[in-house]
Hints:
The complex is a heterodimer.
Chain A: H1 24-31, H2 50-57, E1 58-63, E2 68-70, E3 78-84, E4 87-90, H3 113-122, E5 142-145, E6 152-155, H4 158-164, E7 167-170, E8 175-176, H5 178-183, E9 191-193, E10 197-203, H6 204-213, H7 215-235, H8 245-254, E11 256-260, H9 265-268, E12 279-281, E13 289-304, E14 307-314, E15 319-320, H10 322-326, E16 335-348, H11 349-362, H12 378-384, H13 389-397, E17 406-410, H14 419-427, E18 440-441, E19 444-446, E20 467-469, E21 476-478, H15 488-492, E22 499-502, E23 520-523, H16 536-540, E24 546-549, H17 554-561
Antiparallel strand pairs in A: 1-10, 2-9, 3-8, 3-10, 4-7, 4-9, 5-6, 11-16, 12-16, 13-14, 13-15, 13-16, 17-19, 17-24, 18-19, 20-21, 22-23
Chain B: H1 4-31, H2 36-59, H3 68-89, H4 98-129, H5 140-161, H6 166-180, H7 185-189, H8 194-206, H9 212-243, H10 245-269
Amino acid sequence: MSFGGSELQRPKRWDKPFSDTMTDEDIARLMSVPPFSEIDESQFRASTSLTDILKNDTRLVPCEPGDIVIRKGDWGSSAFFILSGRMRVEIEPPETSMPASVLGRREIKRKNVFEALAQLWKNHRSPEFRSVARAEAGGTGVASRGAGDRTRVYLEDVGTVLDQYRTATIDSGQFFGEIAALGRTPRVATVFSEGEGELLEIRWQGLRDIMRRDVALRMYIEQMFRERALSSFLRTSSMFSHLSDDQMDELCAAAEFETFGQYDSAQTNRTDDIQSEPIVAQEGHYPNGVILIRSGVARLSQKFHNGHKTVGYLTPGQTFGYEEIAEGGKPLRLSLRAIGYLAVVIVPAPVVETLVVQGRKSSSKPLLLDDGRPMQSADAETAGLQVDNDLLEFVVEGRFIQGTASMVIDLDRCTRCDDCVRACATAHDNNPRFIRHGPIHENYMVANACMHCEDPVCMIECPTGAIHRNQLQGNVIINDQTCIGCSRCANNCPYDSIRMVEIRDGQGNLQIDSRNQPIVQATKCDLCVDQIGGPACQRACPHDALQRIDLRSLVSLREMVNR
Amino acid sequence: MRTFVARRMFFGSMLIIVAVLVLVANAALRVAMYHVAFVSGWFLLGLCVFLALYNIRKKLTALPLGTSATWLQFHIYVGLLTFVVFVVHIDFRIPNGPFEVILALLYLAVFFSGVAGLILSRIIPPRLATRGEEVIFERIPQFIRRTRDDVEGLVLKCISESDSSAVPDFYIRRLKPFFDRPRHYWSHLCHSTRPLHSLVVDIEAQHRYLSDVERSLVDQITEYVRTKDDLDYHHAMQKTLKYWLFIHIPLTYSLLVAALFHILLVYSFAGGS
Lengths: 563, 273
């Protein structure tokens, strides 16, 4: 029977390998060096053998002196293994951190009053004016080499950087970048090449599969996470911040790591219905432990007739399941589901009983949060906040819960005067950086403006680190000097909030490359990071209709709705 | 202030207190045989200048001069206060000189256009939010053109699929003017659906002359009529919201110029009082 239409090859995992240049000789060479030579190949399935993984999920990255491999604060989906050469990793404390300009990022200089005023007549008439299209050597201390995927920003004077900033060495045979890649969290340090060398870059999927089959590598990676990041992560939770160092060590040793959902950026924010979301903990079941969200967003739901009602959501740093354990192991009142990709840390119930619940009982004072409220897990807190259920579903289904500064417009108050758009244009050289249009629920519109996501998938594949999170304000911004116009960020943004624009010179002519093609660059809302007084759009709204709110918190949403 | 109600209560209370103070001061100054018109006049001019500054603030978006919303709140309540000061200034009577009458009328026009704007900005947005799709005002003509093209496509389809000219004739006679440009401004402003109802009734009346194929196509055209009507509604409402300022602002500047001339006249003929 024919169904008509053209017959297509069903897409397969490795239709598009990480690199087209991995040869059989390269694979043979990799298989001869530890840890790959020590991995038992028989543990792998025939369809995903170790050699297949190495061939399709890895690539060889030659390094030259000063090449910046990863930058602190960037998002990345791959880990690195040093085959030869030596890397340098920047060490805290933060006051010795390399400045943004050294890393090829945008140096934020806030305008003074006169500069702000001068925008009225100094802004260019032609759209998308840029004085310099590409990064230029000199002045900033960084330059770029290579093209496309292989574009790399490098330090021009490695010696000076080594003299000025504290760094540690990572020698060949070691991994780095695996914690951020697997947990989808920001890179915690900047790593650059000290001299010439060679790296093996492994996509997170490949690393995950190798870890799944090779216990030793999994133990190694988990141990790295326990040593480097777990303690400081657990300390961020009010639940554990009071523990002594010994107790914290006990907690770290017992903690388990789990991930749920699809890591892939295109799917992360566009899963469909609640039933298809992986269940992390199910309503009615007994809690295995307290769940801490490490990255991603989780939905709190409750069975309602034949469906499930969303009652809240949890974001990184928030916890689930404490009340039930504290009340002697009662069944969970809510379900916890992964929205897109979710990484969690689970502290087993007996450990919570011993270290937190017992400690609380023996103490005469209840444990309080910083703001004086009694400690409870976030699921209990959010469930107590009264927000219209339909609005909550809209916010969760649209994945707006990622937004740390979502532009929400109350259409009952908005007179469509476009003062917000004009203010935005004035603050950005006459180029508005958002569209006053977007999904609507009743009288609330989430406008098409960058939400400055908690988990900015736009940053994952940027080859030069041009799109990055500003360390001071936390805004996701683009450095025009290092943006090469590859469109990765725009394609990855699930909300279509990044636009590729053809840039122009002072006369309004398109800037073109050597092949006579117009040069494009990514643009988006930068939350007026260089303006005095914050986002111009919000300040310009005469009717308090437009608000930039942190939708990660139900409290912000409730405050806006209940004004 | 966390809620709009609390903000309204605060500014409302402040307005009443200041208005009472103005009235008390007026009475006290009169008892003291003071020339109240000079004091109230300068006070009124100061308030009017402050109100006019809001338009300048709206243009200086990059400067940290406070949010536009805060300015608007002051603009509204100070604007209401000016009415009390104005009444005190004209000594609770109708002015008699021709220039004073013009000046008073100008003030009243600015005041009531402001009040009208405030009312419109509170009434229209919720209505827009509940009717049709949210559209950007400048794009409405494009959407109308697209709708008209789609409808004309359906009409052409009627021609090719039927030997009757009933639909094209009806389109030329009744629908083309409707789809050509935004229509029924005043009806939409009054929230009336009478023109739409009339058009739909006319379309339905054509059904008796149509074949099944034509009827099905005309049903699709009816949907486009409703879509176009929603676009017209948005156009009318958004146009009103945008264009009332074209009355309020020029009147304001006219008032300020007239007030300056008024001061010049007063001091020229005050005779040293």
